């Protein structure tokens, strides 16, 4: 069977790499293709699913007919902040979308919140569009808590601040293999992989 190319509606190289690793680890014959000309999309639907769908539609509209498209919308929802930054995770500290500034802002907002009220969950919604325009949505959640000081140099985005349930270290410390076993993205990917397999597409 030939390799299935999924064009990823994202300019974020970390997402391309994580999704490719997830695919390879799950033994799928899939290539995650980074979008070279991702159209600008206003992520204004207010939901991860709505934003993911919008990005997938936008990318498919500029690709030749017959291509598969995948979009990932994700972020961290913090209980003590009423679910913020949530769908605004990428732009929490401003429209420039600076990951280091976003991380600093979240650490500051949470500095005085006591242990026991530091619960948070990462969410990932994957929107898959087939060549016929058919659409399928897969969701993953990883619960945990926010630590006080960012810890660890691995991963990306808010990884240094997030300690998944069952772990004593942050997403940025537990290593790529462990993150890819339990993460919000891994959980969404597992469903997508099962869906592709069940249809004999991979
Ligand atoms: P999106 O590109 O609009 O989906 O923005 C997602 C934002 O959420 C990113 O900019 C990151 O800040 C954050 N995010 C999503 N997934 C992860 C992750 O696995 N680790 C850390 N931060 C993440």
Give a description of the structure.
There is one protein chain. By secondary structure, the chain is α/β, with parallel strands linked by helices. It has one domain (4-198): Alpha-Beta Complex (Maf protein), CATH 3.90.950.10. The protein has five helices and six strands. The protein has helices at 13-25, 48-62, 99-109, 176-182, 184-198, and strands at residues 4-8, 30-34, 68-78, 119-129, 135-146, 162-164. The protein has a six-stranded mixed β-sheet with strand order 2-1-3-4-5-6. α1 packs across α5 (184-198) and α4 (176-182) packs across α5 (184-198). The mean pLDDT is 96. The structure holds inosinic acid (IMP). Inosinic acid (IMP) binds next to β3 and α3.
What are the salient characteristics of this protein?
23% strand, binds inosinic acid, Maf protein, six-stranded mixed sheet, alpha/beta, 202 residues, 30% helix
Number of helices: 5
Helix share, percent: 25-40%
CATH class type: Alpha Beta
Shape: globular
The name CATH uses for the topology is Maf protein
Molecules bound to protein: inosinic acid
CATH architecture: Alpha-Beta Complex
Strand residue content = 15-25%
Strand count, sense and barrel status of the largest sheet are:
6 strands, mixed
Topology:
Blueprint (H helix, E strand, L loop, with lengths): L3 E5 L4 H13 L4 E5 L13 H15 L5 E11 L20 H11 L9 E11 L5 E12 L15 E3 L11 H7 L1 H15 L4
The chain binds inosinic acid.
Short description:
The chain is α/β, with parallel strands linked by helices and 202 residues long. Helix content is 30%, strand content 23%.
